[in-house]
Amino acid sequence: MINWNAQFTQLIRKTNQAYWGNWSLSSEITPGAVGILDPATGLFKLISSEIPGVSDGNFIRTQVSSDWNAMTSDVSRTEVEVDLKGEAEDPETGVKATAGVQVQWKMGREGSMVSKCALDAESVLNNPDAVLGQNLDWLVQRAAQSGMGSDGRIAQGFGVITSVLFAKSGLNVGSMAADNTFSLTGTASGVHKMLGEASGKGSFTSTSESKSVDKHLWPSEAGVLASGSTPLAFTFASFDGRLLLPRWITHISAFQLVIRNSNGGTYIVDISLQYDTPRGRKSHQTTVSGGLSASIGDIPLDASNLVLDLSFRGVFSSESKRLQWSSPRGQWVGGVRHVDLYGVWPGETRAVDVEAGVA
């Protein structure tokens, strides 16, 4: 059986590393909702739709004007004009239309998927450390009641939806068979608006598929306009005990830093990592030769102010590089950070923070 939500989440994480997908467009995905998130499936079990004392004023809502287009590599799209025979009415304008369009997606295999939407806005919790910290005792109580905490501590997987990406309209369609097609038909303006290719409120008149599909459309019915926006993706904050993990995507017990000197470089590089913890300043030292990698693990989840110093050894002097992270809890999504080293002696050297894409 295909886990559509897990597959959708992996698809959108190619460009949005901390997002969870909402494949079924479930209305339970709301800003500030409290619940349990299964990292294997991405399915969210709602415990409470809100936190006492947290209101809409704690969230920053930003309009998003771009369209959303995510699909697996074996999906292709075609569009043709069709005759609606004057039977279709655009629900936004009330005008009956004769000329229409049919957009068709060809899906090559079982599990192929397409997500095409008109984005609306993103709602983000402002200052989650402070807001959730003020409500920590209430969250601890609800976690214990849900079997996700004890002794005043919260287990990872229990937490709060901290941001939601909303769509005005669109569709999520997955193929349950190979060599399948799915078609969306309607007025040209209605279909293009629905798919985020024109401004306005979208609609459709009919859908069809050649074989079985798993489909979720917004609006969910033909010939009507959507009643508001629908949640498409979200971010989630969990806890390790009483420590907030603001961009949680999987269970982690410690952070790990991987330094890769395997990109054709020839320098020997001396590595020094220092960071603060509530128990004092900590440090690690190691060395990595060209063609090899080094790993520093067991970095505690409450570490902060990380400073990585890299010294590329030369004959008479060394060349130094420095990378810094103030809070890996928020920056190191998934718990692992990679740094790639470059340089052929005696030439120029570089150190690249891979996840951030900066040198």
UniProtKB/TrEMBL annotation:
> What is the protein name stated in its UniProt record?
Uncharacterized protein
